[in-house]
UniProtKB/TrEMBL annotation, chain A:
Keywords: Endoplasmic reticulum, Membrane, Transmembrane, Transmembrane helix
Identification of the protein by name: ER membrane protein complex subunit 4
Lineage of source species: Eukaryota, Viridiplantae, Streptophyta, Embryophyta, Tracheophyta
Transmembrane segments annotated in the record for this chain: 80-105, 125-145
Top-level taxon of the source organism: Eukaryota
Signal sequence, start to end: none
Region (Disordered): 18-55
Automatic annotation (TrEMBL), chain B:
Keywords attached to this entry: Endoplasmic reticulum, Glycoprotein, Membrane, Signal, Transmembrane, Transmembrane helix
Species, as recorded: Gossypium darwinii (Darwin's cotton)
Name recorded for this polypeptide: ER membrane protein complex subunit 1
InterPro entries: Beta-prop_EMC1_1st (IPR058545), EMC1 (IPR026895), EMC1_C (IPR011678), Quinoprotein_ADH-like_sf (IPR011047), WD40/YVTN_repeat-like_dom_sf (IPR015943)
Highest taxon listed in the record's lineage: Eukaryota
Entry keyword Endoplasmic reticulum: yes
Stretches that traverse the bilayer: 949-972
Pfam families reported for this sequence: Beta-prop_EMC1_N (PF25293), EMC1_C (PF07774)
Annotated ranges, domain EMC1 first beta-propeller: 22-409
GO cellular component terms, semicolon-separated: EMC complex
Length: 179, 982
């Protein structure tokens, strides 16, 4: 457009109107060139867009699966970190364990948001979503398991009796060596 | 692997005992120490030379001490030990303190200025006898000599090196030597005594070589009683055994002549049994009857004359030579709240050299002893000072009609200690006296801040230290949040009750108990123990707390009892009871009435139980718990332990609804030929236990057997009850028992072969620690027994525990026969022990430490984790994480864990622990001759900031941070604005 302006400014010799009148049937006074089939163009156009859409939905579902599988890598990484952290309770191991617990939880909370971009009528997101949830639950389980191995879960009898006061005694006895 | 082992080592060291020592500048912040010498038996003044004037004293607690005559402070002090009784002291050559002790067999000389021992010689003789020490200015072989009569032998000992110059035995079996006399200026010695109680004997001995010059004896129709009083250097006065005939015996030049005068001739009314008062005043002696003290003058040849008869309590001093040939003596008499001190010349009864009246605190009781000393006033007349010993064992110096100083030496013989809370701080109660004003507070904090920022000058540091030591906060008379400020209530042997403030150790009040005072009905009252009678905390806060003092009239176990209730805020004795029964045991019951008075059961010698307080409410409470109250007695002479339950009302002739008969339930009879009870231990009544479970490695759990009815008994072979080393290991053994005192069930019995006592034991929670001597290893040992309840061990189902479907907290009965298992372990320990105690905290959460009173009179803290029967040589990783220390054969003594730091608690008797309100802290009070008090945190003060925490620094930091936030906020606002305009 700007180019056109520049030309006009310098003086116009000739002009071609590119306004497409082809769609307007009233202006179909000029015959089509030979070998030009208007109808086929129309038909072709729709197939192209369909193909395009198919590719996109394929791509979307592929991406969704990819996204759904992403926690798996995370899981492996977490497992490795946990193994590195050892079984004693200290800052590092507690930090790792809590991040291992927090990540799946936050991911599960945002499960809709994660798959938002891939939402499509044609794409079936249930599979990836289920995989995503399952993997995150796996991560969560790993975290809980780690928490347990650190001894931070009250799963032993000792965790429940550690602050039990001594039982009251029924009898009372006093005395000793006479004064 | 390297990292793992590093972590391992790190954990091991971090789990080891934290060092709980003090910094040098923390000494005296929490602790205080007081030194005493006990009841003075004999005192000798040393005021001749220029320099520090002092008085040398020997006491009934076997102490030799020199005190500053100006202030009463101790210059030096030696504790001679329980068997080394001091018989006499004197000063020789003006520089040596001579002491005769151990029944006259040890003679020592101490350097007067610094108390170092110069020489010691042991004197033995043919038989046991009275011990007499006589310093003379006799010179034998160029040495100044001492004459000592002891163990039936007369010795002349050189003052310079303690060498025995000559000795002379008096072996005659029945001879009882009463006096050794050296007439002034002569070189012979008279030894005067009785033979067969009816013969008067005199020996005249050459002082230069011990040669017997003359021996005379004369028979007397009656029998002599005990003492003689020296009237002059050649005359003595004595009483016959009926106490009614006075004898004056003169032995001038070895010729004995005696005169008998019936006491009734001298006095109109019949005086009853008389005794001679020991004194050494020339020409005068005194006898004492029930009602009066009579002074009798000897005129010429055995003629007697009564010079004065007083009905008051009167005390006479020994004679004091004030100038050439002139003697003086002092008399102290009571008159109301005053005492009269009179100094008289020996030759003239009617004139007085000094007469003073001094106001005396009624709580000190009567004067027991008086010692006088003279000085030359500026106008060349004689002035006198008198040292008096009072009934409560306190020591006072009187001079010019005033008390110059006083020492509360009754505190050297504490029988029992308890504690009491202080009053709650209320709006009405004025504590302004000790409150700082704002300016001083600010100044203090600025100084502290300077100290923290290292800007303080040496003067500032000294001021900070002074402020910390004299902090008014710790000596206030009100309760504090942490429970550090309390009253320590101590009962002394003299029958006096003292209340000491835990902040600085000062005496808040002291009270000579009237109920423990000698009287017609109670001739020999003795205090037995103290109990907390009323501890108001919930609904009786208006009442003052009170303590119960239990005593008895006389040393035998069937003497009648005496009770007295004392208000612990004021020291007023608000109630005192003479009981109609004896007191064999006092059992505080775990029940209180509506005014928070604790119920007590007093068991008499006939095994009747008497309930106190005698109120209908108390009997109602008691009736409801009647069937659950038991008692036991340990007869250590016969080796029998018996348990009793209470039956109905006393079957006696008097209807007394507070008296109950006992019914014997069980008895444990130990074979007397093989076992003798030497020690028992029980749990403290007020000990709190936080939990019944003990968590062990791998999240496993063991249930403690916690019972307040647990009794620890240690017995030894009768042969081995003597001193260590008196028996071979084969014939010596130590047996320990853990007994349930309700059912008489022996829970555990263990024998240590080749071991012997003395045993010191402490029982707490579910464990007992005891200390004994191992003859085979030639070392002291400490053992620990932990007892666990196996019948609870199957409570392992988590779900049942989660929903609370278990019976772990339901009340248990001793009759349910819990199945118990015990674990025990023994370790060598370097020290022998005088006392052992365990730290006590308010909820029992803090880990425990043992407090060990060592033979060196110090208190050592030892972590209980060192005495854990689960220790092994190679603990597993899990056990190490749990804090189990690898097993070693002996217990470590960490020098920093002496909680008495550099101080010694001479004659340490017992260690008392009291819980503060702060869970981490225990208050520790150790007493013997000295007193020591400190705060102790077994796991450090995890629940409070340290005392030297700088609040000012914290405040300034916060203010600075807030200011910085504001400044940066304003700056960022401005910058943003500029950015937007651009």
């Amino acid at each position: 457009m700007e180019k056109g302006k520049g030309i006009m400014g310098s003086g116009r010799r000739w002009a071609v109107h590119f306004s497409d009148n082809s769609t307007a049937p009233s202006s179909r006074d000029i015959p089509d060139p030979p070998g030009f089939a208007r109808a086929s163009v129309d038909q072709d156009d729709s197939t192209v867009s369909r193909q395009k859409k198919d590719a996109e939905s394929n791509w979307k579902s592929q991406k969704a699966w990819e996204v759904a599988q992403a926690p798996f890598k995370n899981l492996l990484m977490m497992g490795f970190m946990m193994w590195m952290a050892g079984n004693t309770v200290h800052l590092f191991s507690i930090g790792i364990t809590f991040s291992a617990l927090w990540q799946p939880i936050s991911a599960l909370q945002g499960v809709g948001k994660v798959f938002e971009p891939y939402k499509d009528n044609k794409v079936d997101l249930l599979g990836p979503k289920l995989l995503f949830i399952a993997l995150n639950l796996g991560g969560l389980a790993l975290g809980v398991w780690k928490l347990n191995t650190l001894g931070l879960l009250p799963t032993h009898a000792s965790d429940w009796v550690s602050s039990l006061p001594p039982a009251q005694e029924v009898e009372y006895s006093g005395g000793g060596i006479p004064l | 692997m390297a990292i793992m082992s590093f972590i391992f080592v790190f954990f091991f060291f971090s789990s080891l005992q934290p060092i709980l020592s003090l910094y040098e500048d923390q000494v005296g912040l929490m602790d205080w120490h007081q030194q005493y010498i006990g009841k003075v038996k004999q005192a000798v003044f040393h005021t001749h030379k220029t320099g520090r004037k002092r008085v040398v004293a020997s006491t009934e607690q076997n102490i030799i001490a020199t005190l500053d005559l100006r202030s009463g402070e101790i210059f030096w002090r030696h504790v001679l030990g329980p068997n080394d009784v001091v018989d006499g002291i004197d000063i020789a050559l003006g520089k040596y303190v001579i002491t005769l002790s151990s029944g006259g067999s040890i003679l020592r000389a101490w350097n007067l200025p610094d108390g170092q021992m110069v020489w010691e010689s042991s004197l033995h003789g043919p038989k046991h006898s009275k011990s007499l020490l006589l310093t003379t200015n006799l010179i034998i072989e160029k040495d100044n000599s001492l004459i000592v009569f002891s163990n039936g032998r007369l010795n002349a000992v050189s003052c310079i090196d303690g060498e025995v110059l000559w000795k002379k035995d008096f072996e005659e079996e029945s001879l009882e030597v009463q006096q050794v006399i050296q007439p002034p200026g002569s070189d012979f010695i008279y030894v005067v005594g009785f033979a067969a109680s009816s013969q008067f004997e005199t020996y005249k001995i050459n002082a230069k070589n011990g040669e017997l010059l003359k021996h005379e004896s004369t028979a007397f129709s009656g029998r002599f009683s005990g003492e003689v009083s020296l009237v002059s250097s050649e005359t003595v006065a004595a009483l016959d055994s009926t106490g009614s005939i006075l004898l004056t015996i003169s032995f001038h030049n070895g010729k004995i002549s005696s005169q008998q005068t019936p006491v009734s001739n001298l006095l109109e009314d019949s005086p009853g049994l008389a005794v001679i008062i020991h004194s050494s005043v020339t020409g005068i002696f005194a006898i004492k009857t029930d009602a009066a003290t009579i002074f009798i003058r000897v005129i010429g040849e055995g003629k007697l004359e009564v010079v004065e008869k007083t009905n008051h309590e009167t005390v006479v001093s020994d004679a004091l030579t004030i100038s050439e040939g002139q003697q003086a003596f002092a008399l102290v008499q009571h008159a109301g709240s005053n005492i009269h001190l009179t100094v008289k010349p020996a030759h003239d009864w009617d004139s007085n050299l000094l007469k003073e009246s001094i106001k005396m605190d009624q709580q000190r009781g009567f004067v027991h002893k008086v010692f006088i000393n003279n000085y030359i006033r500026t106008d060349r007349s004689h002035g006198f000072r008198a040292l008096i010993v009072m009934e409560d064992h306190s020591l006072l110096l009187l001079q010019q009609g005033a008390i110059v100083w006083s020492r509360e030496d009754g505190l050297a013989s504490i029988i029992d200690v308890t504690t009491s809370e202080l009053p709650v701080e209320k709006a009405g109660v004025s504590v302004a006296k000790v409150e700082l004003n704002l300016f001083e507070w600010l100044k203090g904090h600025v100084l502290k801040l300077k100290g923290t920022l290292m800007l303080a000058t040496p003067e500032d540091i000294a001021a900070i230290q002074y402020m910390r030591l004299k902090s008014s906060e710790k000596s206030k008379m009100t309760r504090d949040h942490n429970g550090f400020r309390k009253l320590l209530i101590a009962l002394t042997r003299a029958g006096k009750l003292f209340a000491l403030h835990t902040g600085d150790g000062r005496i808040v009040w002291s009270h000579l108990l009237q109920s423990l005072h000698k009287s017609e009905s109670c001739r020999q009252p003795i205090g037995l123990n103290l109990h907390q009678w009323q501890v108001p905390h919930h609904h009786a806060l208006d009442e003052n707390p009170s303590v119960l003092v239990v005593g008895r009239c006389g040393p035998s176990s069937d003497a009648l009892g005496v009770l007295s209730l004392v208000d612990s805020y004021t020291g007023k004795e608000f109630s005192s009871l003479r009981l109609v029964h004896s007191v064999a045991q006092v059992i505080p019951l775990p029940y209180t009435d509506s005014t928070e008075q604790r119920l007590h059961l007093l068991i008499d010698a006939d095994k009747h139980a008497h309930l106190y307080p005698k109120t209908p409410e108390a009997i109602d409470i008691f009736q409801s718990e009647f069937s659950n109250v038991y008692w036991y007695s340990v007869d250590d002479d016969n080796g029998i332990i018996k348990g009793y339950a209470l039956k109905t009302k006393c079957s006696g002739n008097v209807a007394d609804e507070f008296c109950f008969d006992s019914r014997e339930l069980w008895s444990i009879v130990l074979p007397s030929e093989s076992e003798k009870i030497i020690t028992t231990a029980t749990r403290k009544l007020n000990e709190a236990v936080h939990t019944q479970a003990k968590l062990i490695a791998d999240q496993d759990v063991m249930y403690k057997y916690i019972s307040s009815n647990l009794l620890f008994v240690a017995t030894v072979a009768p042969k081995a009850s003597g001193e260590i080393g008196s028996v071979t290991p084969e014939e010596s053994w130590l047996v320990v028992y853990l007994i349930d005192t309700v059912t008489g069930r022996v829970l555990h019995r263990m024998t240590h072969h080749g071991s012997q006592g003395p045993v010191q034991a402490v029982l707490s929670e579910n464990w007992v620690v005891y200390h004994y001597f191992n003859l085979r290893a030639h070392r002291y040992e400490m053992s620990v027994i932990e007892i666990y309840d196996q019948s609870r061990a199957d409570n392992k189902d988590v779900w049942k525990l989660v929903v609370g479907n278990h019976n772990l907290t339901s009340p248990v009965s001793s009759y349910s026969r819990a199945e118990v298992i015990t674990k025990s372990q023994s370790y060598f320990f370097t020290h022998s022990l005088k006392a052992i105690a365990v730290t006590l905290t308010v909820k029992g959460i803090t880990s425990k430490q043992l407090l060990i009173g060592t033979i060196g009179d110090q208190v050592l803290a030892l972590d209980k984790r060192f005495l854990d029967p689960r220790r092994s040589v190679n603990p597993t990783q899990a056990e190490r994480e749990e804090g189990i220390i690898p097993l070693t054969d002996s217990l470590p003594i960490i020098p920093q864990s002496y909680i008495t730091h550099s101080l010694r608690v001479e004659g340490l008797q017992s260690i008392i622990t009291v819980a503060a309100k702060l869970e981490s802290t225990t208050l520790v009070f150790a007493h013997g001759l000295d007193l020591f008090f400190t705060h102790y945190a077994p796991s450090r003060t995890y629940d409070s900031l340290t005392e030297d925490f700088s609040y000012a620094l914290l405040l300034i930091t916060i203010v600075a941070l807030v200011a910085a936030i504001f400044v940066t906020w304003i700056l960022s606002q401005r910058k943003e604005l500029q950015d937007r305009w651009r």
